[in-house]
Structures are given as C-alpha cells and as structure tokens.
Amino acid sequence: MKVLSRSLLLAYALLFSTFSLAQEENPNDWILNADSSEERFQLIQGYLRGFDQPMWEVGERYEKVHEALTRENYQLAGYHWRKIRTTIQNGYLKRPKRKPNADSIFFNGTWESVKEAFDSADKETAWNAFGEAKRACMACHQAEGVGYMKNQSLFELEQE
To answer: Which interval of the chain is the signal sequence (predicted)?
Structure first.
C-alpha cells in the first residue's frame, strides 16, 4: 500500500508539474503573449520603428553603388539603385510624412535619370549620375529638417 501511495503521489506530482509548465508563457513568444491583437500590433509597430532603419539600408546600398561603379559593375550599381527605391517606398509606408519630399526631390526625375545612366554602362555618365543622386539625397535631408545627416563619411565618397 505504501508503494502504491508513493507511486500515486509521484504520478500526481509529475502530472501537476507538466500541467504547470504547459500553462507558463514562453518568454520568447513576446508577440503571442500580448493580451490582445491591438497590443500585438503595437509591439510589431514599435519593433519596425520609423524611417531610420530604411535610411540605414539606403546608406549601405549607396555605398554599394559607389563600390560597383568603382569596379565598373554597372549592373550591380543598377541593382542596388532599384533596391534603394524599394527601401524608401517601404519606409514611407511607416512614415507617410516622408513621402512628399522623397517623391518630389528623388522619384520625380532624379531616380529615373540615375537608373538610365547606370543602365548605359558608360563610365562618365554613370559617375555623373552618382553625383546627381548624392545631391538629391542631400537636398531631401535638408528639406526634412535633418541637414546634419549630410555631415558623414558616406557623402565624402568620391566620384571618379
């Protein structure tokens, strides 16, 4: 009888501990642990942040465009240039107030002419377009009230 009692006690303890573990929230489920869909969306929105992350990617790709032009790899320069457009457009999904300046300064003229210059695979034309792109970036930063962004090594990359 004593063995049976211990066995039952052990079985109950095991069952209870398993049930307790199943009820605990997994701390890695930071979204699923939220109490409501609204709270989940707020967590996701905070995680995705604002326009700074897309601009960080744009800066990285801008450097890659420069590197591609240095190597006379015009297809790669064009690839990164197209991704810059996608990144900025995705960015203003999160921050719609950035759209008017991006469109008027960057996408209504500059973007297409730079793309065509890279597609031409002409060294001088492509490098002149890189300078045009740089000026558009700097003008947009000024228009957005973040002129201090222009004072960084990224904008010191030389045209060839």
So the answer is: 1-22
